[in-house]
Amino acid sequence: MGWDQHVLMPAAGAGGRAGAMATLQAIAHDRLTNPRLGEILEELSVDGSLDETRAASVRVLKRDHEKATKVPERVVREIAEEQGLAFQAWTEARAASDFSILEPHLARMVSLKKEEADALGWEHERYDALLDQYEPEMLTSEVEALFTDLVNKLRPLAEQILQKAGDRPEWLTDAYEIDKQTDFCHWLIQVLNFDTTRGRLDVSPHPFTIHIGPGDVRQTTRYDERNLMMSIQGTIHESGHALYEQGIPEEFLGLPVGETRSLGLHESQSRLWEIMVGTGRPFTEFLLPHLKDRFPSQLSGIDPDDYYRGVIHPRRSLIRVNSDAVTYNLHITFRFELELALFRDELEVKDLPEAWDAAMEKHVGIRPDDIANGVLQDMHWSIGALGYFPTYSLGTLWAAALYRKAEEELPELSDDLRKGETGPLLEWLREKVHRPANTRPAKEIAQAVLGESLSADPFIEYLKQKYSEVYGLDI
């Protein structure tokens, strides 16, 4: 139903769909909070005969049950109803560049999420309860410390890189036929080893990936005739998510351990493929001839150096999803700050547009030209995904560390990618990240692979090496 709402549903169906989804979520909540389920889980949690997988499933489901029992069914239903209505209001508000269309729905959503957070309970601050829904066992204080270090190191580095970048290559904004872009992206997902017999690629206003059930993983992308890289990078990004979902062991599917709870670890997969592979020199060398076959008039005079410099060209962008590896995380960190302010009761929804513009100017160095390119650009808050944004940067930091480890353990990795052979890297990720699924907390899975805690340093070092080689920076 969610996939249909974003891909195919007519706008007029928003009200009916919101009611239907609210009903289903209320039923699911009722079953999850059933006292008998709690009794069974309590018995199983002390059953020493369970194997590792079953014990992990009990642990995860018990956590879900205990949290769900704290939230009144009324709140669950009202959030579900508001999600459908607010999302539709967001689509209309963005098209009209009018925050007033979304404002009452967003104010209601924030109020409900505060009520939900307080019902769930929190020890340090309210935002912890929201963050825990997307990044279990991660505290706001941990994210703040990570992001403070990231911003302090990234902003001066970004300024240095942006000063050297020069004008954007003209070929990036040439006209590229949508049907040929579509054909290329459907070819590309197969190069990345996405199994099209167990999934599909469609189009939506905001790209996303969803695991509907066994053998059914769906991803979407979007196209712009004047922005070839948007569809390519968006497709690679969503394929990273989709490959993770297709890598969950079949015997886990339908069980709590088969659900990928850490969105930061999930995002590490999309960011690793999008940035480290998709904008890496070896893979861009592989892609260019295939792009030239489809767009000879636009790319005939572009050599591998030209293409690589264009793909990684940094610039200040108003739109988060159109930003580059250098500036992307600056978009995330200010969204995190705004969310914290909302849930610390330091900011009201009605004041979000101005607060957004000021924060973007401070962090990214550019001010929105209209509200559609400002506070209305993302759908996340409209669907109640408050606490979600930090996972994008957590994922980026994990991606850089994981790719560095993969390079150490796969000495032929660059040569493989230069030939378009993505299988060895995918199999490494399957072993290290995909197959463990939700059997252990994300921090524990990553720690086992990396041998170190999450930090900003691998990502900062990645950017320094990448851009010093291209621009001759003395970093």
Notes on the structure:
This protein has 475 residues and is mainly α. The protein is built from 21 helices and three strands. It has helices spanning 2-7, 14-32, 35-45, 52-68, 73-96, 99-120, 126-134, 140-165, 178-191, 228-246, 263-277, 281-294, 296-299, 304-311, 328-343, 352-363, 390-409, 413-418, 423-434, 442-450, 457-471; strands at 199-203, 209-213, 216-221. The chain has a three-stranded mixed beta sheet with strand order 1-3-2, covered by helices on one side. Helix 3 (35-45) packs antiparallel against helix 4 (52-68), helix 12 (281-294) crosses helix 14 (304-311) and helix 17 (390-409) crosses helix 21 (457-471). The mean pLDDT is 95.
Overall mean pLDDT score?
A: 95
Query: How many E-type strands?
Result: 3
End-to-end distance:
50 Å
Summed up, the helix count is 21
Give the uncertain stretches in residue-range form.
none
Provide keyphrases for this structure.
3 strands; about 475 residues; about 5% strand; globular; three-stranded mixed β-sheet; single chain; about 65% helix; mainly alpha
Précis, in short:
This protein is mainly alpha-helical.
Topology readout:
Layout: H1 2-7, H2 14-32, H3 35-45, H4 52-68, H5 73-96, H6 99-120, H7 126-134, H8 140-165, H9 178-191, E1 199-203, E2 209-213, E3 216-221, H10 228-246, H11 263-277, H12 281-294, H13 296-299, H14 304-311, H15 328-343, H16 352-363, H17 390-409, H18 413-418, H19 423-434, H20 442-450, H21 457-471
Parallel strand pairs: 1-3
Antiparallel strand pairs: 2-3
Helix pairs in contact: 2-5, 3-4, 5-6, 6-7, 8-21, 9-10, 10-11, 10-19, 11-17, 12-14, 15-16, 15-17, 17-21
